[in-house]
Each structure stands twice: as structure tokens, then as C-alpha cells.
Design brief:
This protein is α/β, with parallel strands linked by helices. It folds into 2 domains: about 210 residues, Rossmann fold; about 180 residues, Glycogen Phosphorylase B (Rossmann fold), CATH 3.40.50. The protein has 15 helices and 15 strands. Strand 14, helix 12 and strand 15 form a beta-alpha-beta unit.
Length: about 400
């Protein structure tokens, strides 16, 4: 008889957690498991599920906010941010959901709750304790806030939280007790993220000459991602080392963040006399089509990024990777093999210039990036590892 799983997923746009869950469901074991997913709304995540005709039952609840800062009010068609009122309303909605979810658990005879994301795992730990249903956590971030770090450690000790799947060793380290933890990295579809299968768009769309070296980065344009630092690095490469490159940022600021950073970045570019060499593409749903035209990928994050998807996506697209050995970034980069993993106080400029000047080095490192992505991060391999954990849990439960 099939076991029934309820995935709780608040990441329905085209962010990392939602895309990672999609890749898991794309390769899931539908012969032995019935899959239900609780989501706040239908968006990119649902589009991917429907596009691939996956046997997933989507349960939409308006009481399940994407984010505790989700805006609840609008004026003249524009969303208004009214903190802390929005947070209070969203918490109240989660309390309502905690009581009404009983009907979902009963209707679909749920045997296991699988929590995808920060909000989901805290909410899942609470309802699993209330309704006494076994729960898995998939932890995709590293908490820097003392209160939230304490909270997830507290909730992780709940009896019905059975497994904690962490996307990197760095992610696992935030837990005081690690007896429930297992590290399984994020995965990507390496056949989808392949230079032979992808439609390159960046050079054509922005009329970049074929001989120009492109140094690019990708991500949500928020302060902690280090985009101001990226511009500093580009300025030094252009002005001090006189490299005639094109610099690219692919991404935009999510709706629930202040929108001032992008304007600030563009002003810094202008003041740095880089306007003719700098491209802001804005949000792109097909990010791989833009990474594919990069020559070098640089991730400027200097905070413990858990295990950023853009790194392994770029690796799968044959790009040499430059980044700092912090969080999960350093776990993906083999220093001197598929890129350079730098100390946090070490400038990346010399390493980038070395790659700009040496085409063979770029190609060799890009080849090694692709090889590692296929051998270690392909979504089929990652999905199988997670399914093995679920199979193992149910097998042990049936024997006890």
C-alpha cells in the first residue's frame, strides 16, 4: 500500500527552495508514495509541476503565507508594507492553518510531513507534535539570528521530527545535536543545464561582441548577497588591470524587500565609470540561458550561504567558479581544480584576472566544473538519496 506524504512548501516563486523541491518531485517514487504539496498560491512551482505532468496533488491555502512579511494591504493596485501589522496578520493565519490542517491530514491519510524551508519546518514541527505525525525537515539555510537559531534547535528536538536533511556541512553545523542530521546537497538537472541543450541569450540580447570576456553573477538583489562588493571587484579589474570585460548581474529584488538597493547599485556603477561595461538584466526565469554566455562566474557572498543553486548551475554549464570558502560555497569549489575558493579576507581580483588572461585555464576549470556537477549534484542522484532516507525510515518504522 502506498504511503502518503504531505510536503509543506512556502517557496512557490522561482527561488532555490521551490526549485529544489521541484527537482525532487520530478524524480520521485510515485509507485510507492502518494504526493501532496501544501502551498500558499500557484506560481512558478505549480507551473513546473504541471509542465512535467507530475502526479502531485497541490493543496492551496490562503492562510499559508509565502513569507511572514507578506504584504496584506494594497492601495491603487500597489502593495503596501505595514510592518509589524503584516507579521501579526500572517502569524494569525498560520495559527488558523494549524487547526484547519487537521482536515487535510485526515482526508489524505498523511503518514509523513516533509517540510521544505524555514517557515515550513517550524510550522511543521508544531503541527507534527499536535497531531503526532512523523516529520522530515529539509534545511536549506543557516540562521544568523540568535533567536531563530535557538528556535530551530529547540524545534529540532521535538520527538516527531525524525530526520533533518541539510544541504551542506555548514548548514548542519548550526544544530547543537546532530544525531538526526544527514547532509544531502542541492541538485540540478544537468541535462537541462547543459551548454549543448540550452538557448544562449545574453550576448545576443545585449549585443555583446564575441571576443568580450563576461564576468557574471546571479542572485536575488538583496544586501547580504554582496553585489556592492561585486562592483568594487569589477572596478579594480577594469581600471587598475585595464581588462576590457563586460560585467553582468542577473537578478532583481524580491517584492518583500525594500527596492532601493538596485537603484543604489546602478548609481555606484555610474560613479565608477563602468556604465558602458555593466549590464543589469533584471529578473530572468530562464537564468541558465544567461549564465551560459558567462566566461567566469563569481559569487560575491561573504556570508555563510548554505549551498547556493547558482553555483552548481554554473558548474553544470562549464563555468570556472570564484567564491569564498564560507558556508556551502567552499564545499562546491575544489580550489585550483574547478575554480578558486578564497579566504574571506582574500581579494578575488588576481584569480579572476588570471582566468581572463588564460583561455585554456578557463576551459579546463569549466570542464572540471561540469564533471563534478554531473557526478555529484545531478538531481536524479540527489532525489535517490532523499528517497532512500524516506524508504529507510518507513522500513524501520514497520519493524518497530
Amino acid at each position: 500500500m502506498k504511503k502518503n506524504i504531505l510536503f509543506i512548501n512556502h517557496s512557490v516563486r522561482d527561488g532555490g527552495p521551490g526549485r529544489s523541491l521541484f527537482y525532487l518531485l520530478k524524480h520521485f517514487d510515485y509507485d510507492n508514495y502518494s504526493v501532496n504539496v501544501l502551498i500558499p498560491s500557484k506560481n512558478s512551482f505549480s507551473e513546473n509541476i504541471n509542465k512535467h505532468n507530475l502526479k502531485v496533488n497541490e493543496i492551496v491555502s490562503e492562510n499559508f503565507p509565502e513569507n511572514l512579511k507578506k504584504q496584506n494591504f494594497s492601495f491603487l493596485g500597489k502593495k503596501l508594507s505595514l510592518l509589524p501589522l503584516d507579521i501579526i496578520i500572517n502569524l494569525f493565519r498560520l495559527i488558523i492553518l494549524a487547526f484547519t490542517i487537521r482536515n487535510i491530514l485526515k482526508e489524505y491519510s498523511i503518514d509523513l510531513i516533509y517540510c521544505n524551508g524555514t517557515q515550513a519546518k517550524i510550522f511543521g514541527a508544531i503541527i507534527s507534535s499536535i497531531y503526532k505525525i512523523d516529520t522530515f525537515w529539509h534545511v536549506r539555510n543557516i540562521q544568523s539570528n540568535f533567536f531563530f537559531k535557538w528556535l530551530i534547535n529547540k524545534c529540532s528536538n521535538f520527538n516527531f521530527v525524525r530526520r533533518i536533511i541539510c544541504v551542506s556541512e555548514a548548514t548542519s553545523e548550526q544544530f547543537l545535536k546532530k544525531d538526526k542530521n544527514i547532509v544531502i546537497n542541492n541538485g540540478i538537472d544537468t541535462s537541462e543545464f547543459s551548454v549543448s541543450n540550452i538557448d544562449k541569450k545574453l550576448r545576443e540580447e545585449f549585443q555583446i561582441e564575441p571576443n568580450k570576456i563576461i564576468l557574471g553573477t546571479v542572485g536575488r538583489v538583496v544586501p547580504r548577497k554582496g553585489f556592492e562588493y561585486f562592483i568594487e571587484v569589477c572596478k579594480e579589474i577594469s581600471h587598475k588591470f585595464k581588462k576590457d570585460c563586460i560585467f553582468v548581474i542577473v537578478g532583481d529584488t524580491p517584492f518583500y524587500f525594500k527596492q532601493s538597493l538596485m537603484l543604489k547599485l546602478k548609481e555606484i556603477v555610474k560613479e565608477s565609470n563602468l556604465s558602458s561595461k555593466f549590464i543589469f538584466t533584471g529578473y530572468k526565469p530562464d537564468v541558465g540561458s544567461y549564465i551560459a554566455d558567462f566566461d567566469i562566474f563569481f559569487i560575491p557572498s561573504r556570508y555563510p550561504d548554505p549551498f547556493p543553486r547558482v553555483v552548481i548551475e554554473s558548474m553544470s554549464l562549464n563555468k570556472p567558479i570564484i567564491g569564498f570558502n564560507i558556508g556551502g560555497i567552499g564545499e562546491a569549489i575544489d580550489n585550483g581544480i574547478n575554480g578558486y575558493s578564497l579566504k574571506i579576507d582574500e581579494s578575488p581580483v588576481q584569480s579572476i584576472v588570471k582566468l581572463i588572461e588564460d583561455k585554456n585555464l578557463r576551459l579546463n576549470m569549466g570542464f572540471n566544473s561540469r564533471k563534478k556537477a554531473v557526478n555529484e549534484y545531478d538531481s536524479r542522484l540527489i532525489a535517490n538519496k532523499i528517497i532512500e532516507q524516506i524508504d529507510s525510515f518507513f522500513s524501520r518504522s514497520s519493524k518497530s
